[in-house]
User: Which sequence fits this backbone?
């Protein structure tokens, strides 16, 4: 029985992958997923991959890339490659925590408010729209300045920015889906409100949640890097791409380019991976997006 179940799961997974590879959106999503897997593996196995400690000098300061330090060393003698590897941990951790907090608040709120509507809907939507129209990075800076450094504080600062995104998307989807015939039928036969929301409505808005989740993680990584670049992120010398980028820019004038170059490349690549993955999924779930008129 277990073998049959495993075979069925394997068969469905293989079929899904073949279907994804059959069009450009699937290829884009899988290409983005490949990039993400590389960074996730880097974060998980950082102690094994990194040749040196990221917070202990391992060579002469400002040494250019060489066989001993393939990405060079910074002004403190820290190995840039080791900080590149460990930096993925910090970026993914903060972005994931921030996204989970935002999704954990925005999704249920959007489901409930979108289903019931009324005066509460108008009040909460007005509040969310006010937060949404405020520049995200500036809002995150203001909150981070009040809360101070630390993984949880930075995650909360970023999460507040993205709660309205989930709320607006889910509320809009629910407002459309709740008028469908199958939802009306469930309501007419006396189904519980919780059953209608979580069994009939939530599965139909799930594709939108997955796409928004991927895009928000990419945005959260950029926001976290921006906060660290401005000195409001993780306390040094903890490896962080945003801090290393800010630290390295002052040495560009002396042609010590590697300090800023490699953290910048890391941020670009991981954001590109999430963006490609999200866009590919969006086109896959909504095939009419890429069609010509």
Assistant:
């Amino acid at each position: 029985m277990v073998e049959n179940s495993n075979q069925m799961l394997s068969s469905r997974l293989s079929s899904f992958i073949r279907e994804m590879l059959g069009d450009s959106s699937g290829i884009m999503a899988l290409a983005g997923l490949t990039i993400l897997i590389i960074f996730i593996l880097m974060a998980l196995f950082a102690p094994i991959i990194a040749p040196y400690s990221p917070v202990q000098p391992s060579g002469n300061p400002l040494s250019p890339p060489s066989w001993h330090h393939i990405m060079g060393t910074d002004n403190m003698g820290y190995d840039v490659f080791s900080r590149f590897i460990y930096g993925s941990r910090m970026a993914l951790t903060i972005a994931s925590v921030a996204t989970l907090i935002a999704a954990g608040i925005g999704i249920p709120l959007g489901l409930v408010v979108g289903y019931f509507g009324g005066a509460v809907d108008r009040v909460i939507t007005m509040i969310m729209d006010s937060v949404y129209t405020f520049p995200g990075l500036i809002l995150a800076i203001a909150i981070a300045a009040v809360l101070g450094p630390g993984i949880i504080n930075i995650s909360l600062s970023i999460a507040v920015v993205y709660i309205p995104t989930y709320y607006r998307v889910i509320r809009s989807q629910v407002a459309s889906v709740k008028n469908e015939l199958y939802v009306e039928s469930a309501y007419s036969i006396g189904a519980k409100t919780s059953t209608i929301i979580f069994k009939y409505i939530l599965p139909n808005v799930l594709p939108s949640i997955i796409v928004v989740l991927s895009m928000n993680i990419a945005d959260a990584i950029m926001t976290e890097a921006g906060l660290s670049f401005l000195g409001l992120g993780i306390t040094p010398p903890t490896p962080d791409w945003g801090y290393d980028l800010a630290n390295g820019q002052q040495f560009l004038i002396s042609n010590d380019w590697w300090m800023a170059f490699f953290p910048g490349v890391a941020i670009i690549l991981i954001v590109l991976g999430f963006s490609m993955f999200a866009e590919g999924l969006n086109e896959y779930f909504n095939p009419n997006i890429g069609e010509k008129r």
